[in-house]
Amino acid sequence: MLIFIRLGAVATLLPGIGDQAVPPRIRLSFAAVFTLMLIPVLRTQMPALPPTLGAMAGLVIHEVLIGLMLGMLMRTFIAALLIAGEIVSLQTTLSFAQTANPAQAQPSASVATFLAMLGLVLIYATNLHHMFIAAMLDSYAVFPPLKPVMVSDAGSLMIRTVADTFMLALQMSTPVIVFGLVFNIAAGFVGRIMPAFPVFFAVSPLSVLFGLSIFAVGLGATGMVFIEHYEEFLNIFIRSR
Asked: What sections of the protein cross the membrane (predicted)?
């Protein structure tokens, strides 16, 4: 039951399995399958049954906190794709185009939704999701059930993960940012030279066309950069191997 509690908390936040579009019953079913897989390996690492109800409650809260911490870290890094999509949408004047995002409970920009779905496809197509199971297993070596939670270390890792997430999002959207800067400066010069020229109506279609063209040309490189960085990030959790 303790194994199921930790893995269930992780499964509710894992990319793909923990998306808002996935029913909670399906998430808990995956957690039950993971538990059955890892029971033979983790049986010897589980503590004895606590003598009191308070000790049992404390152990349950301990496992829930560790599971939520691991799942939140794995989900936070994938937000780099959403941030990159929002930046591309701003640069191409497509922020008003909203699409329902299965990973969230609210719609987001269409480009951001597309990148989020692309990231999930790449994770599961490259078998990177196998590292999720390895991270769950190795979490018992880093965070044993009877060891206090390292709150300060977890907080530092979360801060670093958020910073790396924004940095990666800027790196993936750099070509479109550079294009938007140069294009808007050129459009500003045209507007100053010819004040009567309808710059907005002439520039908007070109901004969308050229911006999406640059985005499409660099889409393959964007996906590879994300997968490489995400694999390096997951190696933090399985470094004990």
From this structure: 53-71, 77-97, 109-137, 166-187, 199-227
